[in-house]
Amino acid sequence: MALTITEECINCDVCEPECPNQAISMGETIYVIDPAKCTECVGHFDEPQCVQVCPVECIPVHPDHVETREQLMAKYVALQVAAGKA
Description:
Elements (H helix, E strand, L loop, with lengths): L23 E3 L4 E3 L15 H5 L15 H14 L4
């Protein structure tokens, strides 16, 4: 399940540096999450770090990118291999 950032985002800048996969970046008006890179921190942490630090709770699961924990782990492994870390 990739996460998404909703319009309630206040551009506080706390989520971007917390993402271990560099899936969060500044979009046209608010931060965005690249679903191809988002593993909900599976492989890194027990809970999504961006959700933990978001002061306005605007980071839900993206309804178009629902994935199982196993799929998220496979994505994590593939990202690590692509980055030369595995």
